[in-house]
Structures are given as C-alpha cells and as structure tokens.
Design goal:
Layout lengths: L2 H13 L4 H8 L4 H7 L4 H7 L2 H10 L3 E8 L6 E10 L2 E9 L13 E6 L2 E6 L5 E6 L4 E6 L8 E9 L6 E8 L7 E7 L5 E6 L15 E4 L8 E6 L4 E6 L13 E5 L2 E7 L7 E6 L8 E7 L8 E7 L4 E7 L5 E3 L5 E8 L2 E9 L6 H4 L4 E3 L36 E3 L9 E9 L8
Antiparallel strand pairs: 1-2, 1-23, 2-3, 4-5, 5-6, 6-7, 7-24, 8-9, 9-10, 10-11, 12-13, 13-14, 15-16, 16-17, 17-18, 19-20, 20-26, 21-25, 22-26
Amino acid sequence: MSMDDTKEEVANTIVTKLSEDLMIDILSRLPVKTILSFMCVCKTWLRLISDKDFATHHLSRSPPGILIKALPEGGISSIFHAFQIVQTGRTFKAERMEFVPGTNLPAATPNIELMNSCNGLLCLSGGEFRNVIHVCNPILCEHIKIHVDDHKACLYGQYFALGCSATGKKYKVLWTFNQNDRHRNPKAEIYTIGTGQWRSIGNSFSIERLDFDTSLHGCIHWARYETSLECIFSFDFETEQFKRLPAPPLCDGNLDGFSRLGVLKDCLSLTVRKWDAPYEIVVWVMNEYGVQESWSKQFLFKPDNLHFISCEPLILLRTGKIFILLDEEFGDWYNVEKIIFRGRIIRCENVEDTRAIAYTPSFVSLHHIAEGEEQVLRSNSDLTEIPKSSMRGSEDPTEKGDWINHFSNSRGQVCFFKRSNTFLKFMRVIVMQTQFNQVKS
C-alpha cells in the first residue's frame, strides 16, 4: 500500500464518523493556510472544501485582513502581500501570504492596477489602454479576463469596481466614465460575470476613488472629498441603481480631503480630519444603514501634529482593538493621550508605488460563478497539490521580533519613521486600544 493510499484510508476513517455538514462547519473555522494544507490530505476533504456551501460558511467566518500591492523600483510587475488577522481569545496574530503573478495572479504586466475586492475576489485593471479587467481569487490561483471596448478604454475618469448582488448569486463589474471631460455627463456600464457582454445603465455618479473596503449590503460606497461632505454615493449591484446616503452631521466644513470611507463590523464608517482646532480625527459609524440619525462618533483621538499622508481604520477586532493603517511621509512624535499604541512595520523596500485595501480571503471559486468566461483555472487534478509558491512568505510575522515599542520615557508617545529618498516606504499597522477613547454618545 502506497503512502497516498494510507493517507486516504486514515483520513476517510476519521471523516466517515462525522457528517459532511459537521465537517464543513469545522473546516470553515480554520485559518486559510491550514485549509489549503487540508486540501492535500485526501479527496474527501478536497471535495468538501471545493463545495459552494463551504465557501459560503467560510466567508461568513473568515477574519478580515490587509492586502498590500507594491511595485518594486524599476520593476514591471507588482507584488501582493496579504496579512490575515487571526484572533485566539484576546490575542491575535498576522498570517502572511505572498501572491505571485503568473501563479496566484494574472501574468506580470507593467501597469496592472488594483481596483477593489469583493468576497475574496480581486478586481484588477490592466492592458496598455486599461482595456482588460481581471477578476481573480489568488487563494485558489484562479482568474478570468474581461475585455473592454477599445474605443471606450481611453475615456476620461474611468473606474471599475467588482460587486456582488445582495442575494449573493451574481457577480458584476461596474464601469463608470466620462465621455467628454472629467466632470460632465458621467456614464455607466455593467458586466454580469458569465454573460460575456457589457450593458449600458445610463447616467451615473462619477467615482473619483474607492477607499479600502466599502462593500456592504450588496453596494459599494464612495464620496467626493472636498471642503464639505453632504452625502455619500452608492451603487446597488442587485437593482443596478445609483443612490445617495446621508452623511454624518458636522461634516459640512473644514475638511481637508482626508476623509475615508470604510466598513467596521458590518457598519459603514467615515473617518474625517479637520483643519480647524482642535486638530482631531473622528471615526463615525452608521449603526443603522441608510438612517442619518444612526451616525455616531465611535472613536476620537487628538494628536498634537499629523504629518502622515493617510490614516484609515481597517479592522475592528472582537477585543475592542482597532487596526489603523498609516502611510507616513515625515518623521515626528505625537502624544496620543491615553491611547496605547503597539504596532508592527510592514516594510516595502525600494518601491515606487503602494496600495492597500482591507481584504478578506475566501474560497469562492470562479468555477462556480464564471461559467462561459475566458478562464485561467486550475484543473481538478491540480487542486490536489497546492503550488508551493502560493505559500511563499508564509512565516508568521509576529514570530520574528517584538511588536514595535518605540516609546519615549513619557508613556503614550510614538515615533513615526521618515521615508528615504530611495523610495524606502514604511507602512505601519497600528493596533489601538479603544476602551479609553470610545466616544460617549
């Protein structure tokens, strides 16, 4: 009897004692890298993990993470680093995976752009004239290619976004663009994955930028960041309608273009920074979707000086800690007033460009949702062996060195690092104790 036969026999002996529903329930609670390893154990586990029901169960439990795209200086291909936050009781760790072009992602291209993510699928824009859209699941090494009309690919202000209908049955790509100039007559087309064609849906609200993770209730959300913020725009992938949502109060002036939309614990959030004193950053949360009165100040901190480019809350943990990503340009110290910081530098050396989004890895397979598309998928036989390159960089970053503790003698101060002239760029994920700074309503 071969080793493979022995594995299969032992695994089946264990599995046959449990129902498939119970096995799916157990397996769907495990970290992504563990599940990938289990896919190689036996055909029974491979079949269970490849099932639609497993993908649904796992997605509902998959802890959120961060995806960073980095383009090396002088390079032609971007590298993607994924960090999944795994909680165990009141502690957590960050599991890291590196997504490799040509294996986990489409083949290397010099100008591929990360647009957004939805249910673990990434939307990438590429091609010489931004005339190719890639939808991929880097965990499963699957992707499809969607072509854009070459005559429209160079239009002004075009933006693509992937979304899923509220029923979870249809995945679609939204394309917004301006036919004549950057601000007039924005149009929109929609592509339902599996149909092979774009459809016009008329006029639209132009999308200037999608923030980290703004997918909620089958919609994506964005805003125009000027000196005031009167409403938030959304697009419903079920009804294919554009809508407006009310902005929180007191966001009607003195904004500096620093506001960021996001999703925290299944609620729409808005982070704002004001020019006027007191110099503060506030995180608002819409506790009841679509109801203006449900906006509340959830977090507030008042640093003495803010010299970083962006400050965006990513993840709110069960323990009450919040992850904030800081994209730093200058070095400085500031007093965080009763907020305890500890963090870890995510380091991208000698890079020309970086982009980060909140990202929840999943086992949603394009085999199930993209029938009829131009697909680059692993065969069922290949699924029995996960490519080792998909596990590159798999060491747990929390096992190497201590969490950052660059504090002065006065507790509550933290140092920011300066970016060098050689494109050395630091991106720090800060873990912030929130029990002291949750705003009383």
